[in-house]
Design a protein that fits this description.
38% of the residues lie in helices and 16% in strands. With 432 residues, the chain is of the alpha/beta class.
Length: 432
């Protein structure tokens, strides 16, 4: 165990006020969460492929798990709940505990069902609590869109006077799930994960949560505003709980007309507003609660898709069900590109299959009823492969329609190369 290994010369272990362990290098007057005694015991990026290895999800997950293990505390913390009041019981106990206590081994007990918890009870607790906490009926969260069964913060959550405490609790709970390597029942939208990671939100992020809003901004981007006489300014009307407020996108926005010259600024401000409207305080409370248990900087090397996989897990894919519930446009089941696509899917591991599903549908989660129950902008929408473009193009996706635009590639190797690049480097050009 590293705890039994002496520190290198000039190094010291200290703890934050929340009990989080960190290391002081007096030689260079720096601090770090990384244990300098790790040496060769930890996985390293090497074997002649340092860059590629460091970028792999498995390697990053191993690094994260090491940080959690090296900052776990001795003994256990006991949480006792009743099944018929699991939400409120968990809320009260988790908020009353010190954040560092939540990094101890969990000992979960259901009243009337006392027994040893070797991990199975804790897994069930995470599943049940996440099912309740993230249930839109509690008004804390809402579905991200009519075609999307992931969640985002509900602006109407302010109806609960204690809503910020609840979001702090949810932040702690989600951090606990990551720290203890447990999965939750329902995931958040990918834009929400991007906010957690402090990544820039783009116009493309809007499509999966608000297609109409997305299309209106795309129209403004692609047309000359000065010729259209739209009479737009830098304001937006926003309704919550029956009350409509006019929000300025920037200072003096009501007196600033949108023109061809400033429409890029307008679109950027609209993107920021769309994902922060009415939820800034709730988001801050969530992130504060999360950061108390797991420092957000530990997640800096992950992207939003990897964060979803960490929280929701990778499901087993029934490729035959996927195949049966896929439709084609300008291709047929016997088109060579389609045959190559399914060969590619069968050759992938579960992680890459999940990332491809995220790329096309916006989430790695499969509905309970399988691929036949995938949702699109107008209700049930099966996975679709459409022949679009030239062989030099990259594949593109339309998450509102669960559609993959697959160019007519000339060989399996070319299809494999282009699809792999698209699902691993989607930011900025892989989606449309």
């Amino acid at each position: 165990m590293l705890n039994n290994v002496p520190m290198p010369n000039g190094w010291e272990i200290r703890y934050t006020c929340e009990g989080m362990r960190y290391f002081v290098d007096h030689n260079h007057k720096t601090t770090t969460f990384q244990d300098p005694r790790a040496g060769t015991d930890r996985p390293k990026a090497g074997f002649g492929r340092a860059v590629a290895y460091e970028r792999s999800f498995k390697w990053k997950l191993g690094e994260f798990r090491y940080l959690c293990q090296s900052n776990s505390l001795a003994n256990h913390v006991k949480i006792m709940v009743t099944r018929n009041n699991i939400f409120e019981d968990s809320f009260g106990q988790i908020l009353n505990l010190q954040p560092y206590d939540l990094r101890r081994r969990l000992y979960i007990t259901f009243k009337g069902e006392e027994g040893l918890d070797y991990g199975g009870v804790a897994r069930e607790w995470f599943f049940l609590v996440s099912h309740d906490v993230l249930n839109p009926m509690y008004c804390l969260f809402e579905y991200a869109g009519s075609s999307n069964y992931t969640l985002q913060i509900n602006p109407a959550s302010t109806i609960n006077p204690d809503h910020l405490l609840y979001f702090r609790f949810v932040g702690r709970f989600i951090a606990m799930a990551l720290f203890h390597a447990k999965f939750i029942d329902t995931g958040f939208s990918l834009p929400f994960y991007k906010r957690m990671l402090n990544r820039k939100l783009t116009l493309k992020d809007i499509e999966s949560v608000d297609e109409e809003f997305y299309n209106s901004l795309v129209w403004i981007r692609d047309n000359n505003i000065d010729e259209c006489e739209l009479d737009l300014d830098f304001t937006m009307d926003f309704e919550v709980l029956g009350k409509v407020d006019t929000i300025e996108l920037k200072e003096g926005g009501a007196d600033c007309a949108v023109t061809e010259a400033n429409k890029e600024e307008y679109i950027r401000l609209m993107i920021d507003w769309r994902f922060s409207r009415g939820v800034k305080e709730q988001t801050r409370a969530f992130l504060d609660g999360f950061n108390e248990v797991v420092p957000l900087q530990w997640l800096q090397y992950f992207d939003e898709r990897e964060l979803e996989l960490m929280l929701c897990g990778m499901q087993e894919f029934d490729i035959d069900d996927w195949y049966r519930n896929t439709i084609y446009r300008n291709y047929t089941k016997t088109s060579k590109q389609v045959l190559w696509f399914w060969q590619y899917i069968r050759d992938l591991d579960n992680e890459k299959r999940a990332r491809l599903l995220q790329f096309v549908t916006g989430t790695c989660r499969i509905p309970v009823g399988g691929f036949a129950e995938l949702l699109g902008s107008n209700g049930p929408q099966r996975f679709c492969i459409e022949k679009v473009g030239k062989e030099t193009w990259l594949p593109r996706s339309h998450t509102c329609f669960n559609r993959l635009d697959l160019p007519p590639y000339k060989s399996y190797d070319q299809l494999k190369e282009k699809l792999t690049l698209a699902i691993e480097e989607t930011e900025g050009f892989g989606q449309e």
